[in-house]
């Protein structure tokens, strides 16, 4: 009964494909995936007797109602029954294997609708002329319809919304875009209604949140940011776009480019961390990948690309208390110097869309802010693309207390140049607002002009069905090349936080031992570089054999094939008789006898891998936490295992920086793996065994204590800064009960190699306007294997017209160094690197003294000084 199995369910109302994966590591485990609705079902209690397997658990959409299944196996076939909340009880009959795609029969049907003689891409002048011609034919009601978005089904990304069925809205021309169409057949059905039955046959945009992969899941964005590898991030975004576009999705609600300084906020998992410079580079790479392919040079007309939507404009990451949707109160200088750079970079890279933030700014909800959306985004930054509201954000202008009713909310959003209202129906008031003289039809024309222009650029107006490609889905989804790219980026995203020499697993040299030693390795990795395994491993914890490694904001139908840590270690060469497994506890609750079983396994092992963390529901939207410690059940397990005296390696799965102070004191090694995606287990095993050398570097500081939050590296000095000289004084900016410094600073990460830095040198003491200074430092791989060192450049403006941070990242080099190799790293510094925004001068560099710092992280740096001369 072990392995993959599939079955189809077909009723007059729906057709489902089910996949089951049966495994056993001490106890039986059952995982299930469902198409076309990629919603998780978890089986907690699994029993087997003879050829029959029974399991009970819960479904994501109705967790309080039991889900149950019975499978009776005979040879390569099975039969049984499944009870799904909201769906009912279904008889099952299936066979071994992943099975054919649910949409295999759709390929022949869609072929008749495709245009084999579609014209080549139109240039901007041709698109402009076509848009004006079509705009002239539309009634006001038709125009408003293009500005409205509906859900594809009853599935909701947020609160329930009162609306007509999508079929009716589309047929009547009252929706120009659709959110959440997970079913390719549904995309085809609704697009055909739009083309054949709506007043002008204008095709729909199909939108979805493709945050870190479509079907092949990559590391969550906070994780892939820790790679500091723009090429790999661009490639991941391009692969996500390729897979999504094959399923008819043309418009992404991503990337999220909010700067995040407060780890209590659940959405830190979706962004690049606390630094605006690095965040800007990553925003650019993601836009290029989504809209231009792996090399960033393609166009939106390419059917393997999708529209990138920068979100959330702006300041959402500064929500008070780290509580989602909460108030934001920041200065204009903070807005422009901290939160704006990633948006500016994404717009300069050509992002086709921007989405508003949920928060207020200067007392006004962003969805209604003329100051932010029209004056800053459109007029100053020159953004000419489509501005879309976040889910329900127009209605929420009323909830904020800035509009009396939805009619007034609609007026305020249109005045702020909001083009598309996501899902809610406040824009139905637009005709009345125009009749009353409160809005002009020219405002509506501007919005619809932008929407139609995007549809022409995507090629939809000339070939509405060009993105509905079931044969392309079958080729791309979860394909081997995409899985390989996910595994490679996952390995680059892991951050080694502590290591007393227990890692990598194995001796000084040799080959892996035992079954699985011939398992595949990433390209470029030699089997000879892997240390010999040392004795037995105890693999303990709720994430030791968990598939909950994908993280939030993903809708993969292949979640049941996620590689667990246990499976990754077996594939890396650890035979099952050398892996002593115990769950120990659940993520948030104890398991009866769990700690006792874990301690017993640890006592027999040479090394313990303690796999702890957060489940996917503890990170992401609406997943803010007061405490950023691991749940108490896991801490009790960790203390019991540590008490055995065996070497313990903590392997973390999580979506935010955590309070790890106790673990730093009691673990022999700490490996931050985040949520690594479809190939997580393989990637983690690659790092643990030494097949790959860790190279990830933190993009958010880890606090010493959650009472420090928010703690970030690029802070201001205050008038009474803490220094080594005044540490014993009372009236300075410090805590009575702990350090000001984080446990692990921004930019931090260890390697199995030891890198040494030489003297930092400048080729001059002054920088002239328009000129350049060069900073040079030698870096040597002094011992250990080949590795990548991320050499980081920081600058401090010592005295400015407004106070400047203690340091700001201004450059970095990822240097791959062989054992014993020395390389000179050169940074060129120009006037633009010193510029910032001030109320008096706008964006400019000010003459004066500067400090330049280089090192492996924001704490351990070498410093020199220079001056900028007046122009």
Provide structural commentary:
The termini are far apart. The longest helix is centred in the N-terminal third of the chain and has 17 residues, at 230-246. The protein has an 8-stranded antiparallel beta barrel. It has a 6-stranded mixed β-sheet with strand order 18-23-22-21-19-20, with helices on both faces. Helices cover 25% and strands 23% of the residues. 53% of the residues are buried. With 871 residues, it is α/β, with parallel strands linked by helices.
The average pLDDT value, as a whole number, equals 94
Total DSSP E strands: 34
The level of helicity is 10-25%
**Low-pLDDT segments, ≥5 res:** 507-532
- Label the structural class: alpha/beta
The end-to-end distance, rounded to whole angstroms, is 77 Å
Q: What characterizes the major β-sheet?
A: 8 strands, antiparallel, barrel
Rg:
28 Å
Question: What is the overall shape?
Answer: globular
Percent of residues in beta strands?
A: 15-25%
Strand order of the largest sheet: 1-2-3-4-5-6-7-8
Figure out the total of helices.
Answer: 21
For the structure shown, list the relevant keywords.
single chain, 871 residues, alpha/beta, eight-stranded antiparallel β-barrel, six-stranded mixed β-sheet, 21 helices
Short description, anyone?
The chain is built from 21 helices and 34 strands. With 871 residues, it is of the alpha/beta class. An 8-stranded antiparallel beta barrel has the order 1-2-3-4-5-6-7-8. A 6-stranded mixed sheet has the order 18-23-22-21-19-20, sandwiched between helices. It has a 5-stranded mixed sheet with strand order 26-34-33-28-29.
